Amino acid sequence: MGKLDGKVAVITGAGRGIGKAAAQLFSKEGAAVVVNDTDETVAAKSVEDIEDAGGKTIYCVADIVNGQDAQRLMDTAFEKFGGLNILVNCAGITRDAPIHKMTDLQWDMAVDVNLKGTFNCIRAAAKYMRKDGHNGRIINISSISGVKGAATQANYASAKGGIISLTKVVAHEWERFGVTCNCIAYGPVDTRLTRAREEQNEEVAGEKLGVPLKTRREMMERYDGRIMTTEDAAYPILFFARDESWCINGNCLQAALGGFS
Fold first, then answer.
1. Is S-adenosyl-L-methionine one of the keywords UniProt gives this record (predicted)?
2. Residues 63 and 148 in one domain
3. Taking the model in full, what pTM does it have?
4. DSSP H/E element including 184
5. Are residues 38 and 150 in the same domain?
6. Is residue 1 assigned to a domain?
């Protein structure tokens, strides 16, 4: 028996990184998973990997910054699998720059994807989750930057801090339906957003992803050469998704070794 048998989960940003690891873990625990990403190639590969392991899954290409796309994503879960029990808002992006050099585009993209996208998905999920006795689970992905702040991340830290507040609001509003809403503020996780940009060639909207090589080295030194893998990061999400977590609501778990100094 899996810990999520019979559950239907939507996971945004599940073509890569933490979202993909969570999708694979949820599937192993018995959930039917809707993989969301804006890139059809990586979404399809994520689904292929889950299916090869015997899981039940589909993908839905949707841009959650668009409210209609977010609604279509939730509708797809219901139409294909007959319900929506778990929503994991994992899609995110960084656009780092010091405040005096940050452009409107950099601000808007980070806030739109991280915060507005999360809001859009929760609002869209209301159609299926705001029902008496639903007992669903919403897990939002924040960051230690949203708790403590971080230089060059005014946009990202503001959005991730906003997610913490949004989590608490949803917890208040949806508790009467048995729906819990919690978030996880991660420290560095080894993804394309934290790898050295000089060592990778991925771009989104004309900007290379990652951090400067110097920043990457300083990060590794601070964490004694060990930061979380995406697989590590998936387990706290699973904890909040389980029925046994029913009594935990509106919380922000800080998953950041060395992040408390």
1. no
2. yes
3. 0.91
4. strand 180-186
5. yes
6. no
